[in-house]
């Protein structure tokens, strides 16, 4: 694609990067076949190719984003299926992230939307505040039925519809808190390694059992696990909302904390059980590439970061004593299969550890969770969830396994089939307890 940035614009490193990305796009259209919003809506501007054109125009003209541009960028899930499909290697992730930052800085949203986004950005990355918010949401959940849904023909959800979607996502009950930050779980038997386990934000409130399963499996196989004190949210939530000031501040704080821990006790890896977080942490090196103080440490942290399935695969687990006849539908989270290019490994681990693993039709399509997307774009999110659940039902599973808490919550909202994390099944197969749901 031809670009027309001025020399003055190309003095900005971000514009230089955008120019490189845009020039790789040949508008072949392969991405349209795997883009969830294009598949659902059939609008060229709701495809990666259409959004790339809108972003190009916005950046070249160096003008404030229009409402039309914001609408179509907001509808993007950042599922990154387009990057898996693209034959030209267009890094759509970095381009759309840059567009979101520009929108956040220069576009004035309606006041109710600004307030909602500000609440989400404040509450979700803070586990204690999020827990209190979930208690309040649970009390208000009966009111969700009284709130209006989407209006026929509306292109943007109303404020009340978004509140309705947020209340509907609140769980009926919350589990007890998991292990505290600063805890160290010693290896059992001969020590084979030492890792920092990302504690997460929403996950430690909604499903602390996930990290408990990871700790159980890792320590049982000779790995010491530390929950690093002073660790923060990875920054993914605010990063995808365009608030890079907050996201990069959190990234820097985590880098400082993890580097100090690595120097103090040594770390073989930073292990992540929420793939949405893992994708962003693995990108810290890129996000802070222009920061003289943090570029090197950020790259080091990105290199240390492993999804839990990547790290478990390196342990070479012994074969299970018996095989299970449980049929597991494996949902490949977008952040795992498209963001981190981890596709077959989790399924292989489940199969080797005794489970009957079934592929889900249209496995490349997003479930509609996508961070805060199922709150900010509930109509599209619900349609994608229902499509995902129907595809899962076609394989008649006993359980559904996924590697990301957002996907787990989203899918569980549309099915009665138990939804568990991959690591819970692997822990069970290697001597841990059968997965529970609270």
TrEMBL record:
The record lists the catalysed reaction(s) as:
glycolate + A = glyoxylate + AH2; (R)-lactate + A = pyruvate + AH2
Q: Which cofactor does it need?
A: [4Fe-4S] cluster
Q: Note one Pfam family from the annotation.
A: Fer4_8
Q: What is its EC number?
A: 1.1.99.14
Q: What are the record keywords, sorted?
A: 4Fe-4S, Electron transport, Iron, Iron-sulfur, Metal-binding, Repeat, Transport
Q: Which Gene3D superfamilies match?
A: Alpha-helical ferredoxin (1.10.1060.10)
Give the first-level EC class, as a single word. oxidoreductase
Question: Molecular function (GO) terms listed?
Answer: 4 iron, 4 sulfur cluster binding; glycolate dehydrogenase activity; metal ion binding
List each copy of the 4Fe-4S ferredoxin-type domain by range: 14-45, 67-96
Cofactor remark:
Binds 2 [4Fe-4S] clusters.
PROSITE patterns, alphabetized: 4FE4S_FER_1 (PS00198), 4FE4S_FER_2 (PS51379)
Its biological purpose is as follows: Component of a complex that catalyzes the oxidation of glycolate to glyoxylate.
Query: What protein am I looking at?
Result: Glycolate oxidase iron-sulfur subunit
